């Protein structure tokens, strides 16, 4: 086996030898710097000749290292050692040891029987001086140094360590505790075992992952190389726990509703379609949890919520992923004012749980989450930002479009002008102007109230303003975080609105089909080519009677982005959807 390893070594290129000496078990030579895995890093080791171009990776170098490490696996097995262990009995985490022995003085050692510890984790750094080796072990909690002295290790384990342990391997180690003269708390290793032999090299600290796409595609490497990435997902879990704790404390019941549905309702979005072989029918991945949660209210529940994945077959951006997580909640005998209070409660509790304060930094902007948050109508915000008072324009769509284009024309690009021209009602136009002019400026928390009925088919008519609904959306940093209604409970009104929504969609769908009729078969408009179906069972449920209620959906991914200062939704989803690599 050793002869085979030597043969592979002799065949390795000189630049790779230099790299390998730097990052593998052959690196036990005098070296002044420790190879730490940190910062954004490449998922493959970069050869010495490629250091001038950090984006370059060498597949042949990686394959050669893998071949050498596979040979080490066979060497370990030939010695009766299992390179892929079943278990390891840990007594402490790295952080626990750092805390327990924080008062241990430089140069001191605790060598009593009670101070013998057992830890496990991944080796992320190493250096050696003759008969002494230092390894940095990282577990979920943090890092600690392994102090490996030849005289202390059992039998020929020091030679085994030199021959078989690489950066990236997962080790278990037992020993006593000491603090070095330089102040580094260490486990003085008496024995160790390779628990998992790593076959592929970890990113080096010099260049890192210059390919952002690769960070998302190989998130497991990203988390090894960048511990702060894993911290984001720990904070995400904490946010979800805090939301649950808040909802449960307020008497809400968590329920589960179907992911596969016969009709994709509760929002207007392109669904994912699948086929159920046994039933012989198409099913849709849910685009919202709304309609089934309302069925729960019909059935007698008064406070319900669901935290779950939503699926929409739409575009991908820094704000959008085809699958994302929301919480939707519904409370009987309340209106949308109560949902404003509840959203403030949820978000401020989460902010305190994650950051310990209500003033946070997001991408260089200070956001104040102190309550109460601003509440303003869509009409007033549009008038404030553009000077256009839609209350004075009445229902004459052409006059409203002309006024809008003459007022905003010089500030609009062609896409915005086309969107304005395509509006089918004054309500749609008001919303379009809001999205273009107002939305990007809503940096501090703002509830935008009273949306047009044309774009709010599931919301109750406003009790004081004709043509509007009791609906709000919550915006922070120019992004929608929440959407809530006083829920529509009139089954006849609801049927009429949903049928009208389907008619409007079918009109757009027909127009899209006519625009693409001269193109090759199979070309479809991404926004309008899908079919919208009526959920008759939901309408039947409403006819049995749903109590007055309010409901709200909050985007958990965007909330985590805000609280962790993450610029992209991909930063807070462990394994986001990405384009296929070619």
Automatic annotation (TrEMBL):
The keyword Flavoprotein does not apply. It comes from the Eukaryota. Residues 496-523 have a biased composition (Basic and acidic residues). One of its GO terms (biological process) is lysyl-tRNA aminoacylation. It is an enzyme of class 6 (ligase). GO terms for molecular function: ATP binding; lysine-tRNA ligase activity; metal ion binding; tRNA binding. Residues 37-62, 496-530 are annotated as: Disordered. InterPro entries: Aa-tRNA-synt_II (IPR004364), aa-tRNA-synth_II (IPR006195), aa-tRNA-synth_II/BPL/LPL (IPR045864), Lys-tRNA-ligase_II (IPR002313), Lys-tRNA-ligase_II_N (IPR044136), Lys-tRNA-synth_II_C (IPR018149), NA-bd_OB-fold (IPR012340), NA-bd_OB_tRNA (IPR004365). Residues 233-576 form the Aminoacyl-transfer RNA synthetases class-II family profile domain. The keyword ATP-binding applies. It catalyses: tRNA(Lys) + L-lysine + ATP = L-lysyl-tRNA(Lys) + AMP + diphosphate. Residues 37-59 have a biased composition (Low complexity). Keywords: Aminoacyl-tRNA synthetase, ATP-binding, Ligase, Metal-binding, Nucleotide-binding, Protein biosynthesis. Pfam families: tRNA-synt_2, tRNA_anti-codon. Gene3D superfamilies: Bira Bifunctional Protein, Domain 2, Nucleic acid-binding proteins. PANTHER family: LYSINE--TRNA LIGASE, CHLOROPLASTIC_MITOCHONDRIAL, LYSYL-TRNA SYNTHETASE. Belongs to the class-II aminoacyl-tRNA synthetase family. This is Lysine--tRNA ligase.
């Amino acid at each position: 086996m050793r002869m085979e390893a030597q043969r592979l070594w002799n065949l390795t290129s000189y630049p790779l030898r230099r790299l390998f000496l730097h990052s593998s078990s052959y690196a036990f030579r005098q070296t002044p710097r420790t190879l730490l895995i940190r910062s954004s890093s490449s998922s493959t080791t970069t050869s010495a000749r490629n250091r001038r171009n950090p984006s370059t990776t060498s597949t042949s170098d990686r394959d050669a290292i893998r071949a050498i490490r596979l040979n080490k696996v066979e060497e370990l097995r030939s010695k009766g050692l299992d390179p892929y262990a079943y278990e390891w009995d840990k007594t402490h985490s790295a952080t626990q040891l750092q805390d327990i022995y924080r008062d241990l003085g430089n140069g001191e050692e605790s060598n009593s029987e009670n101070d013998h510890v057992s830890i496990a984790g991944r080796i992320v750094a190493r250096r050696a001086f003759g008969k002494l080796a230092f390894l940095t072990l990282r577990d979920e909690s943090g890092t600690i140094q392994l102090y490996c002295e030849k005289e202390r290790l059992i039998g020929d384990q020091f030679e085994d360590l030199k021959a078989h342990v690489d950066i990236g391997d997962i080790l278990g180690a037992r020993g006593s505790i000491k603090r070095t003269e330089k102040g580094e708390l260490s486990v003085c290793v008496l024995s160790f075992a390779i628990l998992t032999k790593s076959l592929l090299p970890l990113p080096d600290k010099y260049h890192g992952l210059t390919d952002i796409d690769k960070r998302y595609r190989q998130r497991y490497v990203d988390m090894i190389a960048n511990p702060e990435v894993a911290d984001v997902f720990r904070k995400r879990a904490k946010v979800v726990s805090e939301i649950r704790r808040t909802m449960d404390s307020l008497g809400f019941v968590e329920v589960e509703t179907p992911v596969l549905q016969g009709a994709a309702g509760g929002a207007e979005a392109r669904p994912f379609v699948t086929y159920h072989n046994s039933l012989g029918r198409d099913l849709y991945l849910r685009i919202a949890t709304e309609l089934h949660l309302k069925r729960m209210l019909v059935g007698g529940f008064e406070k319900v919520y669901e935290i779950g994945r939503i699926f929409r077959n739409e575009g991908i951006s820094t704000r959008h992923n085809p699958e994302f997580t929301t919480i939707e909640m519904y409370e009987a005998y309340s209106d949308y004012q109560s949902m404003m209070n509840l959203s403030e409660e949820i978000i401020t509790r989460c902010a305190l749980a994650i950051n310990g304060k209500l003033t946070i930094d997001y991408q260089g902007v200070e956001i104040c989450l102190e309550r109460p948050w601003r509440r303003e109508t869509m009409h007033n915000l549009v008038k404030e930002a553009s000077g256009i008072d839609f209350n004075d324009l009445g229902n004459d769509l052409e006059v409203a479009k002309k006024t809008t284009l003459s007022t905003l024309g010089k500030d609009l690009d062609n896409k915005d002008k086309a969107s304005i021209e395509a509006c089918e009602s004054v309500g749609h136009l008001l919303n379009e102007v809001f999205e273009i002019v107002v939305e990007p400026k809503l940096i501090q928390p703002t509830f935008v109230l009273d949306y047009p009925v044309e774009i709010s088919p599931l919301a109750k008519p406003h009790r004081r303003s004709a043509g509007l609904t009791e609906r709000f959306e919550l915006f922070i940093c120019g992004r929608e975080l929440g959407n809530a209604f006083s829920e529509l409970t009139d089954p006849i009104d609801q049927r009429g609105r949903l049928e009208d929504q389907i008619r409007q969609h079918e009109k757009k769908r027909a127009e899209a089909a006519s625009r693409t009729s001269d193109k090759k078969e199979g070309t479809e408009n991404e926004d309008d080519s899908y079919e919208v179906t009526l959920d008759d069972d939901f309408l039947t449920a409403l006819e049995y009677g749903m109590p007055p209620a309010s409901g709200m959906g909050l985007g958990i991914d965007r909330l985590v982005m805000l609280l962790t200062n993450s610029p992209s939704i991909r930063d807070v989803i462990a394994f986001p959807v990405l384009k296929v690599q070619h």
